[in-house]
Amino acid sequence: MVALASGDRWRLIFCQTILTLVVTIARSEEIFLEWHVTIDLTLKPMSVDQPVITINGMFPGPLINSTTNDNVHVNVFNDMDEPLLMTWNGIQQRKNSWQDGVSGTNCPIQAGMNWTYVFQTKDQIGTFFYFPSLNFHKAGGGFGPIRVNNRAIIAVPFPKPEAEFDLLIGDWYQHNFKDVRSKLNTTVWAYHMPPDGMLMNGKGPYLDPFTKAHESFTVTRGKTYRFRIANVGIAWSINFRIQKHQMVVVETEGSYTNQITLDSLDVHVGQSYSVLVTANQEAADYYIVASPKLSNATDNSSLVGRAVLHYDNSTTTPNGPLPKGPDPFDLDFSLNQAKSIRWNLTAGAARPNPQGTFNVSNVTLSQTFILQGSIIDINGVPRYTLNNVSYTTPDTPLKLADNFINGSDVYNLDEFPVNSSNPVAVDGTFVATGNHKGWLEIVFKNDLNVMDSWHLDGFGFYVVGFGHGKWTPELRSTYNLYDPVVRSTAQVYPGRWTAVYAYLDNPGMWNLRSQHLKNWYLGQELYVRVYDADPDPAKERPPPENLLFCG
Ligand SMILES: *[C@@H]1O[C@H](CO)[C@@H](O)[C@H](O)[C@H]1NC(C)=O
Ligand SMILES: *[C@@H]1O[C@H](CO)[C@@H](O)[C@H](O)[C@H]1NC(C)=O
Ligand SMILES: *[C@@H]1O[C@H](CO)[C@@H](O)[C@H](O)[C@H]1NC(C)=O
Ligand SMILES: *[C@@H]1O[C@H](CO)[C@@H](O)[C@H](O)[C@H]1NC(C)=O
Ligand SMILES: *[C@@H]1O[C@H](CO)[C@@H](O)[C@H](O)[C@H]1NC(C)=O
Ligand SMILES: *[C@@H]1O[C@H](CO)[C@@H](O)[C@H](O)[C@H]1NC(C)=O
Ligand SMILES: *[C@@H]1O[C@H](CO)[C@@H](O)[C@H](O)[C@H]1NC(C)=O
Ligand SMILES: *[C@@H]1O[C@H](CO)[C@@H](O)[C@H](O)[C@H]1NC(C)=O
Ligand SMILES: *[C@@H]1O[C@H](CO)[C@@H](O)[C@H](O)[C@H]1NC(C)=O
Ligand SMILES: *[C@@H]1O[C@H](CO)[C@@H](O)[C@H](O)[C@H]1NC(C)=O
Ligand SMILES: *[C@@H]1O[C@H](CO)[C@@H](O)[C@H](O)[C@H]1NC(C)=O
Ligand SMILES: *[C@@H]1O[C@H](CO)[C@@H](O)[C@H](O)[C@H]1NC(C)=O
């Protein structure tokens, strides 16, 4: 053995110390949660008696505060009177669609039973939320925030804020969700009747004569705060703003964005953002506003969410008119803002490499889906469609059918018209193949005169283009392939299209859905089966030991 010079020995010890440190820091945590999901009849978020779905008595439910690569164990006790599943909006469930918690991947947790989800926040950072996925439950609550924090070894691309606030904003029916659900077979409810109030963290608007409580955040003058905002609602896109304060957009659904300073931010159903807000005004109270897009709601309407930014030294209540947002019907404003939300190519996120290492500037497409959302009566009942096809949920979840019986007995593989509308509107259980490790381009088209937004489980997709009118392949030349933002939910404006690219490196059975609850509940979804014949568990995990069976 060669004797080491003292300098070398010191270096060796130093390296070992660093190695130990890195290993210690990099180790992922196990997070154990026990949730009791029940229906509360006393909360009255908008003054009327209605059932609200709570978790451990809370509405919204508790925060899942995780860090990249943590393993989260959530033992869900269904104390409601009907079957339940929870899904984790934007958590990619890498190689593990068994934990995705949608009707195509899991059997429901029956009333009175419990089931433990175990999933990893693998290679992710950012702001997400969870919600109950079956039976229109989201209209009754049951949602809550998810944070995935950076590992200590990877720098966050902005100074550490004084504090972080989770703010879940969503529209709300002043009706029992079960009643709304049962009326959705009528034209009036299926086509019209959006929700009639706006809640911020489960509370009604400030000074609304009908609400018991409003949301308030306390800040100290001169400090900067991170607001993690999500639209957990049912149908309304919102414009978010704070009186006399600007916000810096820094993150959306797991991507660090180029930091842009805005007076107001549009957040569509199912989307989430982090914004930094500096308390740089006179010590006072200010309005925080979330107003619906494509709506004439007046400032004092219950549909305009109003909370309070309270400076700790303030002695006044908010005053003056609400801060004026953009014209709610100005879609070009919204579209231009959407185009300005771009990926920060140099920031590291979940992995030490900068985000831009994984860019789409030079990819070869493997498949294109052109998907048009609409609504039509099928067999006399209103159904939301994708290419004139409305999804029917089978008794046996698709993922279980794939694993235990011949999937073809349960669903139609590859009969879904992926790039044109079916000449007749049909109901059915269709599944589309996504080529494993291929690039999928999806062009979403919206046939209706209201907003829609689309979400793909299992992946983040690159939002490469928005456009008017008919989409043609030539319009690919208008795409932003340089720094498109990666997220999991993209809005589709009325009469327009949105194009995304996804790299299908995550085998599984993945839900592609409208985030608009009515649309989803009435069939606007498709499953994408990303299949790898190799049973190597490194490629896709085997079913969990506690797997539930049904159908
Ligand atoms: C979340 O976890 C991080 C990292 O462990 C910790 O610093 C932070 O205080 C936690 N926040 C909350 C609200 O629990
Ligand atoms: C149900 O909860 C108990 C703890 O009360 C736990 O031991 C058991 O594993 C849970 N069942 C499932 C299927 O997760
Ligand atoms: C809708 O469904 C309910 C039962 O859920 C039924 O009573 C009602 O007649 C149906 N309405 C229509 C228009 O089909
Ligand atoms: C909003 O108001 C404008 C002007 O008053 C009116 O033309 C339009 O129909 C209204 N839109 C809705 C959705 O109520
Ligand atoms: C709401 O505001 C409108 C004008 O912005 C006003 O005409 C109306 O009286 C107000 N309603 C209530 C209940 O305050
Ligand atoms: C706020 O008030 C506290 C005492 O109540 C005082 O110490 C502090 O300096 C004040 N801060 C500002 C920014 O005015
Ligand atoms: C991108 O992230 C880097 C940190 O890696 C940061 O210094 C820079 O300001 C960010 N750029 C923009 C435009 O936000
Ligand atoms: C995109 O990725 C390629 C391959 O990794 C790299 O050569 C190129 O510099 C990246 N582009 C940007 C803008 O980061
Ligand atoms: C871009 O793609 C072409 C053709 O597929 C390939 O030859 C070239 O090496 C790629 N360039 C980069 C920077 O990846
Ligand atoms: C599954 O069923 C389809 C049609 O019923 C059949 O064509 C196929 O060969 C079957 N596959 C297996 C693996 O049995
Ligand atoms: C549409 O799909 C069919 C069959 O999958 C394919 O042959 C055709 O080239 C596609 N057309 C376009 C425009 O992508
Ligand atoms: C959808 O189906 C209906 C009949 O069910 C038909 O009238 C309509 O033209 C179809 N739409 C398209 C875009 O093909």
Task: Describe the overall structure.
By secondary structure, the protein is mostly beta strands. It folds into three domains: about 25-150, Cupredoxins -  blue copper proteins (Immunoglobulin-like, Sandwich), CATH 2.60.40; about 165-340, Immunoglobulin-like; about 355-530, Immunoglobulin-like (Sandwich), CATH 2.60.40.420. The chain contains six helices and 33 strands. It has a six-stranded mixed sheet with strand order 10-9-12-17-14-15, with no helix packed on it. A six-stranded mixed sheet has the order 21-20-26-31-28-29. Strands 23-25-33-32-27-30 form a six-stranded mixed sheet. The longest helix is centred in the first third of the chain and has 21 residues, at about 5-25. It starts with 5 loop residues before the first helix and ends in a 21-residue tail after the last strand. Mean pLDDT is about 95; it is low at about 1-25. The protein binds 2-acetamido-2-deoxy-beta-D-glucopyranose (NAG) (12 copies). One 2-acetamido-2-deoxy-beta-D-glucopyranose binds next to β15. One 2-acetamido-2-deoxy-beta-D-glucopyranose (NAG) binds near residues 362 and 364.
Count of discrete domains: 3
* Ends apart, CA distance between termini: 67 Å
Report the helical percentage. Answer: under 10%
Largest sheet: 6 strands, mixed
Stated plainly, the CATH topology of the largest domain is called Immunoglobulin-like
Q: Would you tell me the overall average pLDDT?
A: 94
Number of helices: 6
Strand content: 35-45%
Low-confidence stretches: 1-24
Shape, principal axes of CA atoms: globular
User: Which ions and ligands are bound to the chains?
Assistant: 2-acetamido-2-deoxy-beta-D-glucopyranose
Instruction: Going across the biggest sheet, name each strand in turn.
Output: 10-9-12-17-14-15
- Compute the number of strand runs: 33
Class from secondary-structure proportions:
mainly beta
Overall CATH class of the largest domain: Mainly Beta
CATH architecture of the largest domain: Sandwich
